[in-house]
Amino acid sequence: MSDHSEASVAPVEAFEPPYYMAVFTTVRTQNQSGYSETNARMEDLVKDVPGFLGMDHAQTPGGLGITVGYFRDADALARWRSDAEHRAAQKRGRAEWYQSYTLHVARVERSHAFTRAQAPESPTAG
After folding, report:
1. CA–CA separation, 94 and 118 (whole Å)
2. What values do phi and psi take at 108, rounded to 5?
3. Which of 96, 87, 98 is nearest to 28 (CA)?
4. Strands across the sheet with 52-59, in order?
5. Could you tell me the pTM of the whole model?
6. Do strands 19-28 and 52-59 pair parallel, antiparallel, or not at all (unpaired)?
7. Could you give the maximum distance between any two Cα atoms of the chain, in Å?
8. Helix (H) or strand (E) holding 86
9. Per-residue model confidence as pLDDT tens digits over 3-59
10. Rounded CA separation 91/99 (Å)
11. Integer CA distances (angstroms), 47 to 18, 31, 97, 112, in order
């Protein structure tokens, strides 16, 4: 949903399946007036949806944006989809901010994660 260069770089953790994910892939228009504020509001709002698990973002240098939202169940995803403020933001996005987008919704059947262990710091010679 936004550029997150200030956020720490780490994927959302793996969750016990099944759960749902919504993959929102976008190409934005030149007119981004009001986008950042609306996007920040949507990110705050979705956190209040019971069953919301987290969100990952990526943006290519060429302008392709990908946001993946994770939800515990279909009901949580439906609550987000039907939220009045979210629906208003979607309408504005189609009218102003998106050249094109796709939305894919899937039920996750398998999930795992990996994190490399931190190497111990080597002592420095004095």
Report:
1. 44
2. -85, 125
3. 98
4. 52-59, 64-71, 19-28, 98-108
5. 0.84
6. unpaired
7. 63
8. helix 84-92
9. 444 556 889 999 999 999 999 999 999 999 999 999 999 999 999 999 999 999 999
10. 13
11. 20, 27, 23, 23
Start-to-end Cα distance in the chain = 48
Give me 80's structure tokens: 């987000």
- CA-wise closest residue to 80 among 118, 44, 110: 44
**Could you tell me the two tokens for 85?**
């403020």
Q: Which two tokens stand for residue 56?
A: 């990952």
Distance CA 77, CA 22 (A): 8
Residue type, 42: M
CA angle at 87 for the pair 42 and 91, rounded to the nearest 5° = 105
Tell me the residue type at 2: S
What residue type is assigned to position 124 of the chain?
Answer: T
Q: Is 1 exposed, middle or buried (0-12, 13-18, 19+ CB in 10 A)?
A: buried
